Amino acid sequence: MNGKTTVLFCESSIRNLKHLCRELNVEDTPDRDAAEREILLRGYERWGAGIVHHLYGGFSFALREENGRLFCARDAFGIENFYYCNLPDDRLLCAPNLSGITSNPGYRKAIDPEALQIYTIFGYPAGERTLWRGIRKLMPGCTLTRDKGPATIGRWYR
Question: Which of 14, 94, 116, 148 has CA 20 to 30 A from 88's CA?
Fold first, then answer.
């Protein structure tokens, strides 16, 4: 990590918030969202990708370093959602909900016929597929990183 890191989005319910506030010297304020964002920034600065091993509870987040590197993660049980999509112009969209991607002008809405078939069989889109073509779910216990080129999916929890 080099330079300033920003939180692109954070959906979380970090259960060990008070412990992490003490450990990372973050003010435990009534504004839980602000405290969780600060924990992500300081924790990522200290532990890098290992931050996921320090968070207990549900979370999905996306962090972007000043150099453009993207680091994203989802909690081990999939409590919080995380969706991503590679656009034809080589941009990567990510959001905690589908509308965060489908409402982007760069995304062309289209149903994924294979995911639709799975949905009609099981009653939900199984695995990483969604009903929208090209939009994938980051599976529980996984990270997504992207420097330059394609995103890399890794598993941090088994």
Answer: 116
pLDDT value at 1 more than 60? no
Of residues 130, 43, 125, the one with CA closest to residue 82:
130
Quick one: CA torsion of 136, 137, 143, 145, rounded to 10 degrees? 30
d(CA 130, CA 99): 12
pLDDT for res 18: 94
Angle at which helices 17-24 and 32-47 pack, to 10 degrees? Answer: 50
Q: Is residue 84 a contact partner of residue 138, using CB atoms and an 8 Å limit?
A: yes
Cα dihedral 22, 24, 26, 31, rounded to 10, equals -90
pLDDT digits (tens, 9 = 90+) for 39-92: 999 999 999 999 999 999 999 999 999 999 999 999 999 999 999 999 988 899
Which residues have a Cβ under 8 Å from the Cβ of 64 and sit 6 or more positions away? 5, 6, 8, 70
The whole-number pLDDT of residue 158 equals: 87
